[in-house]
Amino acid sequence: MSKSEVKDFLSQHPDITTIELLLSDLNGVVRGKRIERDLLEKVFTKGFYLPGSVMALDSAGTTVEESGLGMDVGDRDRLCKPIPGTLSIVPWHEGGDRAQALCTMYKDRSTGFFADPRQVLVNAIDRFSQLGYDVGFAVELEFYLIDKQRDEKGNIQPPIALGSERRMMSSQVYSIDDLDQYDFFIRDVIETARQQNIPADTVIAEYAPGQFEVNLDYGTDILKAVDQAVLLKRVIRSVANKYNMDASFMAKPYIDQSGSGLHLHLSLLKDGENVFAAEDPTQNPLLRQAIAGLLSMADSTQAFLAPTVNSFRRLAPENFAPTSKTWAYDNRTVALRIPSGGQSATRIEHRMSGADANPYLATAVLLAGVTEGIQNKLEAPDPVVGNAYDQEHEQVADNQRDALRKMEADPRVSDWFGKDFVELYSACKWSELRMFEQQITQMEYDLLLPYV
Question: pTM of whole model > 0.90?
């Protein structure tokens, strides 16, 4: 980032006194530090330092020592640099004196740090670009709004809309009334995103009480779009908190309601023309190859797309979450959907990621699968007709143990993500899995303690 960008920003915002420097960790959680205004130019020209172990934290925020980034290396600092174009104000902060910048971590002045998920995506984009195509790319984020006050049993519940006594308790997908009830929140999210140069353009009510989906504009810069998705999650949480609500990207917060996904849309273009386009897109050879590649790596990349124990609760039949290695035209029961629309808009909608997935890693999975399929001219199975849940199809893993083992066993994953990164990710996720499995649930006490 140039000095002029910093000087221009500070001259336009004389009230800014503090800047938040943000990094996305392995789990997609934003971490970082704050600096004062007079240090901003130095940080943007020379960088700053954070421990490399920031990229080896479990969901509890604890360093996973098995990763090798903690005490084994003296908890070493790593160079971090702000990302050009991400310096913006923080509109939700009272006083109007706060700004932020998204950053990334380096091994040295020019080489990305292997453990930074953003650098994993940078490498994947470089490799994908060798196919020679331009792209159309977009991100959809699903999330729940949750009342900060729990119900009489201590469980989470949907919020009560501002100025209303009505709690959203029924599923009213695409309901305009529900959007009207939460218009105060939606408008604030869109406006706050605009102030941070994040192109959020559409919000819809989803399949469960308090569940919404927000879409980012279609763009041609994959890395920029994913950076914006990471920042948009922070916008949504911060605006929700402003109205005394929580916004959660947990994959399955309610066991009896639909889970939340992270959907990625990708089209390939050559000389401005969509190469996936066809009168019947399911018969387009290039699109079928891309689909075949994604399905061939579905098992071995699922650990990135379903990163927690809770992620697998989302993968349930009849809940619009993919449970099998399937694809189809305009069908939301499959893993890979070809949405309807004009030929020029033909694209793959990748529906396998939970909303809790790290967007950088999920996008790297998408690019890896598409590239493997096209380069190796893989052949896709026939597209599904009808309800995929009612048919016999090869299933994806339904638990984190199997997903991690399949990730570790596929050499293509190490090739795309880096052997060191896969070992790091595996160490962190096995440690986290053990943490979850060492808890005894209330149901075990209720059902087993008195009788066994």
Answer: yes
Buried b (16+ CB within 10 A) or exposed e, 150-161: eeeeeebbbbbb
**Closest CA relative to residue 224, chosen from 110, 370, 129, 360:** 360
> 226: buried, middle or exposed (CB in 10 Å: 19+, 13-18, 0-12)?
buried
In the beta sheet, which residues pair with residue 63? 57
Measured distance CA(222)–CA(26) in Å, rounded = 19
- Which CA distances in Å does 221 have to 129, 136, 137, 254? 11, 8, 7, 35
DSSP-derived secondary structure for 351-411: EEEETTS-HHHHHHHHHHHHHHHHHTT--PPPPP-S-GGGS--PBPPSSHHHHHHHHHH-H
Q: For each of the domains in the chain, give its residue range(s) and CATH number, in order of start.
A: 3-113 (3.10.20.70), 126-417 (3.30.590.10)
- Highest-confidence range of 3-17, 204-218, 224-238, by mean pLDDT? 224-238
Which tokens hold the place of 40?
């901003």
pLDDT in tens, 383-398: 999 999 989 999 999 9
Which has the closest alpha carbon to 43: 14, 15, 1, 4?
Answer: 1
**Token pair for 42:** 């130095």
Per-residue pLDDT tens over the stretch 293-323: 999 999 999 999 999 999 999 998 877 889 9
Largest separation between any pair of C-alpha atoms in the chain: 72
